[in-house]
Amino acid sequence: MQIYWTKINKIIEETPEVKTYLLDCPEDFTWEEGAHTHLALEGFNAGEKPNRSLVRHMSISTLPHENSIGITTRIKEQCSEYKTILRTLEVGSDVALFKTHSNVPLKREDKNVYLLSSGVGLATFRPLVLDYLNRADNVNQIHSLNIDSSKDFLFKDVFESAPDKKFTSQFVDYREGYYEEVKNLAADKDGLFYVVGSDEFLAQNIEVLFEQGIHPKQIMLDKHEQTLSKFLSVDASV
C-alpha cells in the first residue's frame, strides 16, 4: 500500500460547520470524479499497528485539473478525536492519503442522472457535476437533489441550475419534501440514481426507489462491491 504524505495549502470555511481542506497533489497521485480516499493525520502509523482513530474515509471534492485535492467535511462543536485534531490543523500541516478509489464515476449511458444527497454528501457529487458541465457526452441531463436542515447549502456556485446545459439543482431543508421529490424523480424508470449520505439515508432512499419500481442496477452507491448487496438486495430495504 502506497502512502502519500502531503501538505494543506488552503482551508476554506464553506459554512460555520463545514470546511474544505485543499491539499497539494503528490507526484503520481491520480483520481477520477466520485473518488474517495483515506485521510490520515500525523502519528497514525507511529506504532506497530495503525491508529485507526486518526484515519477517515473521505470523498475528494475536486477534479485533477483544479490542481488541489479537496476534502470537504462537517466539523461540529462536539466532535470525534479525529475531527478535533483536524480542526486545529493549519496551512502547511502534513496529512497522509492512501487507498484512493472511485465507486461512483459518472456513467455515460445516454440516460438521465439523478444525484441524491444529504448535507456534505454534495462533496462527492461536485466533481461529477463539473465533469458533466465540461463534457456532457452521453449523458442526457443531470438533476441534483440535496437535503440539508441547516439551510447552509454547499457549493452554490457549482450547484446552480443551468438549463442550457441540462443541469438542474434543487435544495430542500425538510425530510418529507425531500422524499416526495425522490418519488417524483423515480417516475423516470430508465434513470440512474446516485445516492450519498449516511447508511440510514441510503437505506431510506433505496426503499423509496424500490417502491417506485427502480431496479438495483440503476442505483449507484459509494460503497465497495462486497457491501453493495447489503444495501441493494430487496430484502435489505427497510
TrEMBL record:
InterPro entries: FNR_nucleotide-bd, Riboflavin_synthase-like_b-brl. This is Dihydropteridine reductase. The lineage of its organism: Bacteria, Bacillati, Bacillota, Bacilli, Bacillales. It comes from Oceanobacillus iheyensis (strain DSM 14371 / CIP 107618 / JCM 11309 / KCTC 3954 / HTE831).
